[in-house]
Amino acid sequence: MRIPNIYLLLKPSSHYCNLDCTYCFYKRVSEVYPEGKVMTVDTARTIIEKTLETGARHVSFTWQGGEPTLMGLDFYREVTSIRTSTGSRGRSSRTHSRPTGCSWTPSGRIF
After folding, report:
1. Is residue 79 part of a domain?
2. Residue 63 falls inside a structural domain
3. Is residue 52 part of a domain?
4. Number of domains within the chain
5. Which terminal Cβ of the chain has fewer Cβ within 10 Å, N or C?
6. 86 Cβ contact partners less than 8 Å away, ≥ 6 residues apart
7. Is residue 109 assigned to a domain?
């Protein structure tokens, strides 16, 4: 049986955020995991490759946080490159999105 769709919500920047929104439910994570770690490119590569190996027709990667743009443009250049170099393998579509509070700059629109 072929998996039709996979939707992943990834939090590469963990709870790190530079906005301090009062309504944010994720801020409490810093109290539980104060040392917090961020996702490495190698971890992102493994997630992307394993997900694409499923053969799902549509795969969606949403990078959330904290504030996902704190990972920097180089992180997203690399994960986008990994995703594109993996090939389509019969998928009709693959999407990436980065919801952000307000930290994304015009230079971030290169993807």
Report:
1. yes
2. yes
3. yes
4. 1
5. N
6. 48, 49, 52
7. no
Q: What values do phi and psi take at 14, rounded to 5?
A: 55, -135
Closest CA to 19 of 64, 62, 66: 66
**What pTM value is reported for the model?**
0.74
The answer to whether the beta carbons of residues 57 and 94 sit under 8 Å apart is no
State whether the Cα torsion 97-61-85-48 is positive or negative: positive
Tokens describing residue 109: 């629109």
Q: Can you give the residue range of the structural domain that contains 48?
A: 8-103
Q: Considering only CA atoms, which of 6, 14, 18 is closest in space to residue 43? A: 14
Residues 6+ apart with CB under 8 A from 55: 2, 3, 89, 90, 91
Integer angstrom CA distances of residue 59 from 15, 32, 35, 45, 101: 24, 31, 31, 15, 24
What is d(CA 48, CA 111) in angstroms, rounded to the nearest whole number? Answer: 17
pLDDT in tens, 27-46: 777 777 767 788 999 999 99
